[in-house]
C-alpha cells in the first residue's frame, strides 16, 4: 500500500455508527413486513415484466434478543456506474455483517463493474484488504464500470460464475440504471430457479434516486459539501477582487438536486434550476435576459462581479433545446450510416448535413448555436444512445450569449458595466472525496443492512436506511422493493423498464427556500462560506446533514 497521508491514517481508524436495530448483529433481527407495493407508474407493464418479484412488501428490521442461525453464504458485490463517496464503506459494512453472522461466510468483489461478474474476474476479500479502504473515497477497491446487465447471455454467464464460486447472493451498488439492472437480474434468477438473491444499494451523487423510503442516495452529502466549499472559496475571491462573474456548472446528469443544494449552502447571486426552466417553458433567450438583467442591476450598484450556478443538465430542459436534442438523438443513428456525413472533410459540412436533416424549427435552434456547442452535440453518444449532456459547455454557451445580449443593451443606452467572466465545471472533484461522517455512517449501514436482507432470503430489494436527520442510532433499517420505483421509458427507440429519476419538486420546501430568497441574494451578496468538510470536532459541525435533507424531513 502507498504511504498514507495523516488524514487518511486517522480516517482508517473511524468506526462508523449503525442504527440501533443493527447493533446487536444481523443474527438478532426480526423482520417486519409492511403493505404490498406497486410500481410508481405503468403498473400493468411493470408487473408483466417482473412476474416473480413484483409487488413485494416494504421491510423494516427490529432488534431482538433471540439469536438465529443461518447457513453459510458466499456473496458477490459489484460497484456500478460513476463513483460516489462512501462506496468503500458499503462494502466494509457488508463484509463486517457477513463475517459477524458466520466467520465462514465469504465476500467476493467483481472487478471493473458488472463486466466482472460476466467475465468471472474477481477477488476474495480479507480483513487486511478491507481495512485498507475503510472510510476512504473512490471505487478503487475493485473498480467500477457501466456494462449493462440485461441480456440472456449476460445473465447466463453471471449464473455460471456464481455457481463456480458458490455465491448465493449478489449486491449491486449503483444508481437508477444500475439498480434497474439489479431488478432485471433478480427477476431472471428467480424465474430460472437459481436460488441466487440480488440486493441493490442506492448510490449517486446526483441525488435523484430517492422516494419516501429512500431519503437520499449515498455520496450526495459529501459531493455537495465539496462543491459548496469550492463555491464558497470562489465567492470569497469574487468579493475580494470585485471584477469577475464566475459561471459554475455543477454535475448532475438530469435533476438539479446538486446545484440546488450547493446554492442553499452558499447563497450565490444566480441559480438556475432545470426543472423550473422546463415548467415555465423558458427559452434560451428568456434565460439570457434573466441573467443579463441581474448582471446589469448589479453593475448599476457598482458590482461588476457575481456568482452564477448552472446545473449540468440544463440544456435538456430548455424546451426548444430539448426538442432539438430529441430530434438529434433519433437522427444520429441514421447519420452514422450516412456516407456523406461520415466522409465529411470539415466540421462545417457536418453541421450543414445535420441542419438539413433536422426538422425546420430544430434546425433553426441548431444553427443559432456557437460552433463549439454544435460540435459537442455531435460527439459520441452515451450508453443510451443520447447526446452526452455532461460534455456540453453550457456555462460557456451562456457566457457567449450574455455577452451578445449585454452589447445589445449597451447599444440601447442601458448601463451594463464591465463584464469579465470565468467559467468552471465542478464534477469529478466531488465524486471520490473522503466521505463525510454522514456518508461514512450511512454507507456502512447500507452495506450492513444489505446482508441482513440477504440473511432473510430476500431478493429484488434496495437496502434502505431512513430517518436520516436524526442521530444514527435512531435510523430505521429495512428494504424497499426495486419494482416499486419503476416505470417505462424510451431507450434506444423502444420502451424499457427503468427506475424513475426523482427530479426537483418545484412545490417542495427545498426549491421554495431558494425561490423565497433569490431576489435578495441576487443583489445583496448574502454569500455563505461553508469551508472544508470537518471530520473531527463537535457533532453540530461534523455530523451536519444537507439542507435538502433537513428541509425535506419537516412534514
Explain what this protein looks like in three dimensions.
With 555 residues, this protein is of the alpha/beta class. The protein has 24 helices and 15 strands. A hairpin with a 2-residue loop joins strand 14 and strand 15. Helix 3 crosses helix 20 and helix 9 crosses helix 21. The radius of gyration is 25 Å and the shape is globular. The protein starts with 5 loop residues before the first helix and ends with a helix. The relative contact order is 0.18.
Residues in β-strands, percent? 15-25%
Number of domains: 2
Shape: globular
Biggest sheet: strands side by side, in what order? 1-2-13-12-7-6-3-4-5
Helix content: 40-55%
The tally of strands reads 15
Radius of gyration: 25 Å
Biggest β-sheet description: 9 strands, mixed
CATH overall fold name of the largest domain: Rossmann fold
Count of separate DSSP helical elements: 24
Query: Averaging pLDDT over every residue, what do you get?
Result: 94
CATH architecture call of the largest domain: 3-Layer(aba) Sandwich
Low-confidence stretches: none
Q: How far do the termini sit from each other?
A: 47 Å
Structural class: alpha/beta
The CATH class designation of the largest domain is Alpha Beta
